[in-house]
């Protein structure tokens, strides 16, 4: 079926809304779901539609204990809306759909489609089948049918893009259910990855984020332990690609050749988000993490030796079953030693279906909360101290969209430094677009952002800015109801502002 045929399969101006929960993999999958629906003739509902669309898709996450309650609560709020809107359809996909399958339709019989993490490409067909047969369609594939990057994609950003290099995970961390839902790791061919990046650059993209559940294990399919470092170096040879990032790596696979590739490839940014999870060796063992405190701190030391200005962030779980006060103090020790620019700290919550959920030694909520507050206070202090070191530096920022919530009131714009720090800067007299690059001097530091209060030193208009301008001009010319703007949920905001994995499971 051609795109033209598919577009005739739905009524003109039939609208859709995709609601995304969880990690960057889900965000990128939602871009594909949007691309599939638009390829089938649907148009995006206004961002304030709040369920007032012909098709509402939930792309779910299953790594939190209350994930199902959140889903069913949202589905319940849509039930009366659907009863008043003939032809409205509701679809549920993602990790929770992969896990719960028929349970979703049993608890919410007004749902029309349930699909899993391995068959997102079937959504338009399943919607049509549900419409014709007038009954719910539940289709969960047990293994990947096709690498999702072959599907149509509606990118949320004109100047930055996710690029998946693998799906699935071969680890067996006791707190994580992702491998059971996304399957074993499957790598893409490097040639396909580079071809996608070159095509994106041709469209005006200047920053890409390589994405994988365990991104630096890339190459395990073919037994090449240096495949990831080779891929980074290959990205450095793509003309017009200004910034390369990746998330999230695993300390087990963080080898010296990766550090060398980062340091020696100019467009690979001096930024690293590497989950710690715990600083205690006994807890790391209970988590089935394949490294220990010395190994983690050794990686940090090597990264800083190769890239002194690198910004390093992490994920930490507080209150894992069996965690003693001494175990927690070991985590605090690593935080003091590593001096992370940011840390996403999670209070342990049971993931149904994981070994940790039934372990002895579950920590009382009040103890977990008290430790969490201590850790957060320590990291806040370190983040502020590390940001203060940036005052007086001259930095090149890629202008961002939607990251400065107060920019309108303060007459500022926002951008990302090479190390991913968020910087709010004085709006220059000349026109500056998202994707353009400005040079500024940092004048003030807060724990989670920097300010450049003086005049902008230089403005460099870019092809990425051109792409943003073209996209918004095309959006303005579209009929009402078609949204081609850049809602911030989908733009791959560099870490550490966006959560590391969204689930702390890397």
Automatic annotation (TrEMBL):
Record NCBIfam families: miaB-methiolase (TIGR01574), MiaB/RimO family radical SAM methylthiotransferase (TIGR00089)
Record-listed [4Fe-4S] cluster 2 binding positions: 169, 173, 176
EC numbers, comma separated: 2.8.4.3
Organism the protein comes from: Streptomyces kanamyceticus
Cofactor(s) this protein cannot do without: [4Fe-4S] cluster
Gene Ontology terms for molecular function: 4 iron, 4 sulfur cluster binding; metal ion binding; tRNA-2-methylthio-N(6)-dimethylallyladenosine(37) synthase activity
Name this polypeptide is given: tRNA-2-methylthio-N(6)-dimethylallyladenosine synthase
Main location: cytoplasm
Domain Radical SAM core: 155-386
Record's subunit section: Monomer.
Domain MTTase N-terminal residues, every copy: 14-132
Residue ranges annotated for the TRAM domain, each copy included: 388-456
Compartments it resides in: Cytoplasm
Residue positions binding [4Fe-4S] cluster 1: 23, 61, 95
